[in-house]
């Protein structure tokens, strides 16, 4: 038996969208279960996201601290953003987010991991990139607004982040998954064996 996620779609008898927001919406599907019964399934429809674990020459990860209203906390995170344009190349989106949020560019890009953040209630898919060979971006800094006005920045050693994750001190899912994936990759075939930056992503196909 191969342990691998596979695509599958159960029959939908009816669907409705009771809420449409600025970036996401809520959908209700009537889904046929294996025993023939039909049940309602409500879930958030999300365009998808990218995140960047940017690793500098001192083995430190570039972090951003940002207020997140739904959880009423300021969270340490890695740069991330929405795939605002349908079919957008996720690498290009990740490069844009790294520039806009941290005014940093990277020469070496790999796919670190792909995840569904909350597949029981949201279809958000996130591609987390590993970015290395960092340098300051050229030109003016991106003009921020809203929560981003209050951003804080840090570069933190990988080992320190791993300790914080396991101690329950760091909670952002992309940070947690990214750091632990980095450690697993190093313990396995190494970072150069990671998928190329333009690797296929069936969850969010792109040109």
Automatic annotation (TrEMBL):
Keywords per UniProt: Hydrolase
Ranges for domain Nudix hydrolase: 44-178
Top-rank taxon, per record: Bacteria
GO cellular component: cytosol
An annotated Gene Ontology molecular function: hydrolase activity
GO biological process: nucleoside phosphate metabolic process; ribose phosphate metabolic process
PANTHER family named among the record's database cross-references: ADP-RIBOSE PYROPHOSPHATASE, UDP/ADP-SUGAR PYROPHOSPHATASE
UniProt protein name: ADP-ribose pyrophosphatase
Organism: Streptomyces mangrovisoli
